[in-house]
């Protein structure tokens, strides 16, 4: 059992790439009363050394093993490639370290269970980086949703899992589906566009990466795709693309849905993706919740080429429409706002719009701040691994806690598989 760390918590970082250079290292530097980064490692030693000298990290380690065993590391931040999250988390946990793991937690149910088993055995805490849920605006949004009456129920029925030509599809939707209850959107431009304008000047190092590392990553990815998708479909580009996109970006929204609506959707009525799997639309349904027994969520996520980050969750209740709008996390200080549209109680018959901006503090800073307090005081975390024991071992719909994307993903992937590609 690892004891609660004292402040400042000593952090070792695995992965000196973009998110570490642009987000985590600057954020941790601004929180010296809570954290001190003591070591960093990367496949590229040049990347570790660069981050070490730019951000004043005393030690650049040659290997992950060396870093996780350091006495002066209380917590390991895992910011390496998705394929290695499972291995790196287990190595850090087995060395008795608390873990802050970048999303996605991992890419397979097997890895999620491995991480949870190790976590329970070692008595450490693992936090999964769904930072959007730590934004102060999210707390206000949830409160507004809770006090605004039931989420509206679209009782029109189910969209069959298939593709129609646009004309007939539209008319089908009009005939059978009443307005949805929530809209969740994550349509974003390329990271590099925002990073280039963030003023953080990250550098990518690849030249000194050992020969064989790229092949190892590729083999690991293939193994994980097969474990998740099954051998027959693991080679279908649109399914692999959808799986990776949902796990990496869609998981943010799925995680927000989980907390806003008190759990994951009960089913995915339909889902659709492009050839590359990088643009996905899905219709999720929550049963036995809201007005009349349930409600639907219209979900869309995708990557486009324009420098716009359009990410929100919008909930329709009888009283008001409440929207929580996020901007890119790669630029520090961009506000996260709540937009409320409703009847104006002060002027009968009129309508009002309000914008609430609780703070300019970014969600990562909030997350790291909440985490320090929880670890120091040995309090439970919010975004945990939390594999539900009741569904462990089920073949296809594992409840993977903050790997929640995988549950929805299974559902959406089944739906996409049953339909046709766009
Ligand atoms: N929370 C968020 O919004 C958010 C945003 C960006 C990235 N991320 C996540 O952070 C992680 C890193 O993303 P990134 O954009 O920095 O990627 P990146 O490719 O820029 O950096 C990853 C770094 O990890 C290193 N690495 C890869 N495999 C390794 C291994 N086996 N051992 C040691 N080092 C290894 C690479 O050399 C690279 O420098 C990903 O899991 C990504 O999904 C999360």
From TrEMBL:
This is NAD(P)-binding protein. GO terms for molecular function: nucleotide binding; oxidoreductase activity. Residues 9-130 form the Gfo/Idh/MocA-like oxidoreductase N-terminal domain. It comes from the Eukaryota. InterPro entries: Gfo/Idh/MocA-like_OxRdtase_N, Gfo/Idh/MocA_oxidrdct_glycsds, NAD(P)-bd_dom_sf. The keyword Cell cycle does not apply. It holds the Pfam family GFO_IDH_MocA. Keywords: Oxidoreductase. SUPFAM superfamilies: NAD(P)-binding Rossmann-fold domains. The keyword Oxidoreductase applies.
């Amino acid at each position: 059992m690892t004891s609660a760390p004292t402040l400042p918590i000593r952090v070792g970082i695995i992965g000196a790439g973009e998110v570490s250079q642009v987000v985590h290292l600057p954020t941790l530097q601004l929180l010296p009363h809570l954290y001190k980064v003591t070591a960093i490692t990367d496949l590229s030693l040049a990347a570790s050394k660069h981050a070490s000298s730019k951000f004043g990290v005393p030690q650049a380690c040659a290997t992950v093993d060396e870093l996780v065993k350091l006495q002066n590391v209380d917590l390991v931040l895992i910011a390496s490639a998705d394929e290695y999250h499972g291995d790196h988390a287990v190595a850090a946990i087995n060395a008795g370290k608390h873990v802050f793991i970048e999303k996605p937690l991992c890419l397979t149910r097997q890895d999620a269970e491995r991480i949870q088993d190790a976590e329970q055995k070692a008595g450490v805490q693992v936090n999964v980086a769904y930072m959007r849920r730590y934004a102060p605006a999210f707390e206000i949004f949830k409160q507004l949703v809770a006090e605004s009456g039931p989420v509206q129920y679209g009782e029109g029925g189910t969209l069959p899992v298939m593709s129609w030509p646009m004309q007939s599809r539209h008319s089908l939707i009009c005939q059978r589906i009443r307005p949805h209850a929530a809209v969740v959107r994550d349509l974003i431009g390329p990271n590099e566009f925002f990073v280039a304008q963030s003023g953080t000047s990250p550098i990518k190092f690849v030249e000194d990466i050992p020969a064989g590392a790229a092949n190892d990553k590729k083999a690991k990815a293939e193994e994980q795709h097969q474990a998740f998708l099954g051998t027959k479909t693991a080679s279908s580009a649109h399914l692999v693309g959808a799986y990776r996109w949902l796990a990496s970006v869609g998981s943010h929204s799925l995680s927000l849905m989980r907390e806003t609506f008190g759990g994951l959707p009960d089913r995915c009525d339909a889902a659709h993706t492009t050839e590359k799997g990088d643009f996905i639309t899905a219709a999720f349904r929550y049963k036995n919740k809201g007005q009349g027994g349930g409600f639907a969520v219209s979900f869309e996520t995708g990557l486009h080429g324009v420098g716009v980050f359009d990410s929100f969750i919008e909930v329709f209740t009888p009283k008001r429409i409440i929207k929580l709008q996020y901007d890119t996390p790669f630029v520090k200080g961009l506000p996260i706002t709540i937009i409320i549209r409703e009847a104006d109680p002060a002027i009968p018959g009129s309508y009002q719009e309000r914008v609430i901006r609780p703070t300019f503090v970014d969600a990562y800073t909030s997350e790291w701040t909440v985490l320090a307090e929880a670890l120091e005081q040995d309090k439970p975390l919010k975004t945990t691994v939390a594999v539900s024991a009741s569904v462990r071992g089920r073949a296809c719909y594992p409840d993977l806690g903050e790997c929640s994307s995988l549950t929805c993903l299974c559902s959406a992937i089944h739906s996409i598989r049953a339909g046709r590609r766009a």
